[in-house]
Amino acid sequence: MRRTGTKAFVRRTLAAAAVAALVAIAAGYLPTGLQAQAPAASSAIPNLTGIWARTGRAVTPEQLPLNARGIALREAIDESLAPMYDCVPATVPHILGDPYNFQIEQRPDRVIIKFEKDAVTRTVWLEGHGHPAASNNDFALHGYSVGRYEGGQLVVETTKYTFDPGGLEDKPPMTPSSTQKKTVERYSRDGDKLTVDVVLEDRLIIKEPVRFKFEFLPTKEALVEWPECDAEQARAPINYMPVNQLKYGIR
């Protein structure tokens, strides 16, 4: 009888321990294999969600290290070819330098960045979630962006940009970018300050990569609804430009 009672007691004890362990795991007190990695992973993910406003602080290159092709293309581009006159929004890095707010939304498998200016929305596909790599059909104005969290930063790599007359410099003298344009953005947060470092490269146009840096602060102001661009109105200013301001006299 003692042996039977002892065995029954052991079985009840083990069963109770197993149930307690399951309850503890469900409550989050004991880590499973995945939960044990969660604190380390989550601690490397900065909280970037919110609406951000430019502080005015920025670092931009004084001049681009253009190669011979880049110099020739810059000379061929004039004001009438500026994309904004055809309702084309600015791209990275220049859209980050515009004095308009933008919003970041962090999801488990992607990051959505919405810009007030021109109502631009970018999707950054986070690595490790099964999203397909960019294909030859994925060239777009804002490129194809993939991201990862690294050292407390959001790192965004964008390729597959289309040719853009103002892709490297969107103010006179404008400099175009080719389909070899690539940008690497690093979003980091220090208290309330958001810093975005951007490395821009285009081996067909510039000799070496160049760096941009922008700073932002959180704001409670909602994004302003941007009016739809009217193509005819957007191009109207070109009709009033003096001919001597057009390199080739062509509007």
Account of the protein in words:
- The chain is an alpha+beta fold.
- It has 2 domains: 2-43; 50-245, Lipocalin (Beta Barrel), CATH 2.40.128.
- It is 22% helix and 31% strand.
- The protein has helices spanning 2-27, 33-43, 68-76, 94-97, 231-235; strands at residues 50-59, 102-106, 110-115, 121-126, 144-150, 153-159, 164-169, 175-177, 182-190, 193-201, 210-218.
- The strands form 2 sheets. A 9-stranded mixed barrel has the order 1-2-3-4-5-6-9-10-11. Strands 7-8 form a two-stranded antiparallel sheet.
- Strand 2 and strand 3 form a beta hairpin.
- Residues 1-43 have low confidence and may be disordered.
Number of domains: 2
Largest sheet: 9 strands, mixed, barrel
Q: Under the CATH scheme, which class of the largest domain?
A: Mainly Beta
Overall outline: globular
Q: What is the overall number of helices?
A: 5
Indicate the CATH topology of the largest domain: Lipocalin
Strand arrangement in the largest pleated sheet: 1-2-3-4-5-6-9-10-11
Q: Which H/E pattern describes the elements?
A: HHEHHEEEEEEEEEEH
CATH superfamily of the largest domain: Calycin beta-barrel core domain
Overall pLDDT metric: 86
* CATH A-level architecture of the largest domain: Beta Barrel
Structural category is: alpha+beta
Unreliable parts: 1-43
